[in-house]
Amino acid sequence: MAAISVRTGPRRRRSVEGRQRVRDGLTDTLIHLLLLVVAVIVIFPLLWVVGSSFGPSGGLANASPVPENATFDNYVHLFTQTNYGRWYLNSLYVAVINMVGSVGLSALCGWVFARIRFRGRKASMLGILILQMFPSFLTAIAVYMLFLNFGLLDSLTGLALVSIAAALPYNTWLMKGYTDNLPASLDEAAALDGAGRLTIFRKIVLPLMRPMLTFVAITSFTVPWMDFILPRLLLQSSGKQTVALGLFQMITDQYSNDFTTFAAGAVVLAVPITILYIALQRHLVTGAMAGAEKG
Amino acid sequence: MTTTETTELPAPAPDRATRGPGRAGPGLPASVPGIASGLVWGAGQLINRQAGKAAFFFAFFAALIGWEIATGNYYAGMQFTPRLNGGFFVRGLWGLSTLGTQPREMTLTGLTEGDNSIVLMANGLISLLTLALLAVVWIWSIRDAARYRADLNTGRRPETSRGYFSRLWEGAFAYIVLSPGLILIVFMSVLPVLFGILVAFTDYNRDNLPPKNLVHWVGFENFATIFAVPSWTATFTGILGWTLVWAVLATVTTYAAGLLLAVVLASRRVRFPRVWRSVFLLPWAVPAIVSALVFRSMFNGQFGPVSQWLVDMGITDERVYWFTDPSHPSLARAVALLVNLWLGFPFFMALVGGVLANIPDSYYEAARIDGAGPLQQFRHITVPIVQRTVAPLIVLSFVSNFNNFGVIYFLTEGGPDNVEYRFAGSTDLLVTWLFKLTLDNRLYNIGAVMSLVIFVIVGAISVVNLNRTKAIREL
């Protein structure tokens, strides 16, 4: 009995393993095939626009992902013949103000809501929660009507202030939620040592908040580059446009004859932001999770 | 230590305090100082012999009166009309209630300066908000005067003005730190929101533009227009229906694709999972406006490459006008959903990937020992755990798709045209329609009504979502 089993055992096992291996190989191939198809679908449009930006002709019809005579003409044209450089600086200006203002204000407010008990705290937090539900473009349209009648349109600083205010309720909730989870014992120890409240905030709480600060900083820095509704409503003259507005106009106004310049502009806008997102992806995903859990 | 000191310190003070009010008449009922403070702020505190507090409250009163007189046009023997003589508050309230009475007119000397209804409304709103804040101080002064007197009458030792203010100052820290953010929010969010709500009840549109014309209050007329005039109602219900379909399909497709890819990438069979993952994250990392505009060009009917290939390969006889062919609205909608899938799946893939990494292997081992196949493991272990963690984000994603301005506006601009709709195309969502109503057609009042409708829908979803999360309970 034992001899038989010894003789037949390995052979049968080998055949089972063989079938298993074939099936595994088949699944592996299918899985990788699926991944490959998705990757092609993901990469192709991006490759197409990058290729077009190096292409020689200005027309959309001749744009191709792999241009035959690659040139930098479109980039030269972009910065010499259009206002792109100006738009880029405008966006940078708004982005920096928005980042600094959002991080500073939301960190302060979030910390106060998390650590200090004061009258009206619950009411104001509820108010913030309700404001946060109000989609920001609805506010934007009302702001537009107000600015239009008071002659405040066309100001980049105004745009930055409105952006800060629009995101402040949400950012404050994020910061409050994060501070809630920080140990209060450190604060108390510092208070016993005689540290003032602002000192405690600066020296102890702020460094601990760094992951959330990073999240708010990245999102509030990148939003002005991509936002369309607010700048479209609040900015008018061509010298005060942001990159997103300029690109949109390029593609709607001079549709078929200047596509390659648009492509170059799109690449110049997308590359830094893409690198930033890929490099800091973990922060961004955790931050989004935290936002959802806090409502 | 410090706390005991502050409570001990004012101990000798009540002696003076009890002697002080004694002169004002010990039997005075608590309502007398209260009423006095109600008439002239701080008067009640003065009756209570609390000069410091009296000055504090009177300062607000004086500021209110002074500001009104300084900005107004008050002089002896005048004939008072709020329009010409009123100061910040009187004229503000007048403007808010009437929205102006004098339109701009052509006279012999040129154009007269008419009332600008919108400026009047905004100013009125600001003065109303200021008055509301001052009313809080007013009620505070009345309650303080009455309570202090009641404490005196029951023989308790009341707090001195100085003790009161030092306590107030301690408590004011939070308010001082919050005030910059608060001011920004009040002027850039709260005020516009209130203003937007008010505009829904006016006839502010392209036929009634200040300063040329006056705007009037019209009550619920705009709501009646949208819900009773057939062409408006048809547009509204049609767009609302598509918006809901869009939001559901957009969320489901991106979530399903993200889940599938995350599970596949988590499998040990995949070689170089990190490389694949980075590639798949690209649509999320590239700014959505760029991707959407690129797709718009690819699907351009006349020159775009997609149409060209279809013709070259012989699949279609002529070019397909994806977003501009009114006879095929579903085609434009389907393409918009596909583009949104391209844009949206990486986010869910990244999220689910993070959750999967935290599921202990022991769950799957236990399942395997019990004889569960891979599909059963997926259905009974992976999906429930992922769903529980990601559920709030699915709701958030539904809301953001409901308001997905970017994809639709950049890709199709609402097209193809729909002759049955008012100022809207077949792929228009409520948001893009609202945008067109306001900016392109200057129908501000109808736009404001739409804003309110969107707010109610989005708010209802958010409230349901919030109730399930910790946020409310932690308030």
Automatic annotation (TrEMBL), chain A:
UniProt entry tagged with the keyword Lipid biosynthesis: no
Name the record gives this protein: Arabinogalactan oligomer / maltooligosaccharide transport system permease protein
Annotated membrane topology: Multi-pass membrane protein
UniProt entry keywords in alphabetical sequence: Cell membrane, Membrane, Transmembrane, Transmembrane helix, Transport
Source organism (scientific name): Glycomyces harbinensis
One Pfam family linked to the record: BPD_transp_1
TM stretches of this protein: 29-50, 92-114, 126-150, 156-174, 212-230, 259-280
Segments forming domain ABC transmembrane type-1: 88-280
Family membership: Belongs to the binding-protein-dependent transport system permease family.
Record InterPro entries: BP-dep_ABC_trans_perm, MetI-like, MetI-like_sf
One term under GO cellular component: plasma membrane
GO molecular function: ABC-type maltose transporter activity
Biological classification of the source: Bacteria, Bacillati, Actinomycetota, Actinomycetes, Glycomycetales
Main location: membrane
TrEMBL record, chain B:
SUPFAM superfamilies attached to this UniProt entry: MalF N-terminal region-like, MetI-like
Membrane topology: Multi-pass membrane protein
GO cellular component: maltose transport complex
Residues making up the signal peptide according to the UniProt record: none
ABC transmembrane type-1 domain segment(s): 240-465
Statement: the UniProt record of this protein carries the keyword Kinase: no
GO molecular function: ABC-type maltose transporter activity
InterPro entries hit by this protein: MetI-like, MetI-like_sf
Protein's UniProt keywords contain Transmembrane helix: yes
Localization, UniProt: Cell membrane
Primary location class: membrane
Bias (Low complexity) ranges: 1-10
Keywords, ordered alphabetically: Cell membrane, Membrane, Sugar transport, Transmembrane, Transmembrane helix, Transport
Disordered: annotated span: 1-27
A biological-process GO annotation: maltodextrin transmembrane transport
Source taxon at top rank: Bacteria
Transmembrane segments: 54-76, 118-140, 172-201, 239-266, 278-299, 334-359, 389-411, 443-466
Annotated CDD domains: TM_PBP2
Pfam families named in the record: BPD_transp_1
Its job: Part of the ABC transporter complex MalEFGK involved in maltose/maltodextrin import. Probably responsible for the translocation of the substrate across the membrane.
Membership in a protein family: Belongs to the binding-protein-dependent transport system permease family. MalFG subfamily.
Protein name in the entry: Maltose/maltodextrin transport system permease protein
